[in-house]
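Researcher: Here's a chain I'd like modeled. Treat it as a single chain, no partners, no ligands.
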Amino acid sequence: MNTIKRKVILDVDTGIDDALGIMLAVGSGDCDILGITTVNGNVSLQQATRNTLKITQLIENEYIPVFAGADRPLVREPRFEHSVHGNDGIGGALKDMTVYRQMGEMAAHQFIIQQVMSQSGEVTLVMTAPLTNLALALQEQPDLPDHVDRVVIMGGAVNEYGNITPTAEYNMYVDPEAAKIVFKAGFKHIVLVPLDVTRRVLLDRNHLAALARTARPDITVYVHQSTSDYMKRYEQRNGVQACAMHDPLAVAAALRPELLQTTSYYVDVEANSELCDGQTVCDFQNRLGQQPNIQVGMTVDHIGFFNYFLEALSRL
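Model: Modeled as a single isolated chain. Structure tokens:
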């Protein structure tokens, strides 16, 4: 049995599902988390960093360093998603928690560069936020792709409608210029986890009940509180009372690749359109004549995912 743990950096804009992704990564026992980098996205950089520190305190893993990154997209104004994640980003949960942890002094993109270059070929980047931090790292260290093991990105929609505009997924929409830089950088192995598969893994009341039977009471309370309004919002929009597990699925895809079936395509992001900014353009028929640059998640083992997720949280 292979006991070598995958070395990962989690890049987050900690809203509700980022937090669950962090919890999954820690509870899984399948990775060595080198650090967590934060970025402007669902909420401000300051709030995303504060939420990340709270989550690591909740799960009693304060040893994981946290580094703050970009406080805005490369060229655009920030676009927060308070209607889904609440004003604080985590649905009002942990509002009375005192944050005693300190974040690292290094900028997030510099931490990414340092870790990747010092451990060439060993680090997996799990990106569950707008891709600003990684784009900044690439601008400073253009040969970074030669030294990264894999990049796993939650983002985009290839055969689906968007979740922030009719055509765009939120992470791509917030900073499409950063996404274009990342997609064209020449990484050997990028996995895209789009809405097409994340909408197939919906946390519902049955999962919460199963969690209550196995997890610590404070973990169960947190998950229930943080997802409560999100589930109501999802029901209003989609007719199902559930919480789409966008970011946890990306984490799972990085640690248990067999959960996601992928196909290689050439993928780009629209960044100059009144109606379609942030749209993920997947060239299914190779009409552009470009070599595939991304492995796109097409189907998911949703039962296997939830078994993995619930088991991981029960270990916290």
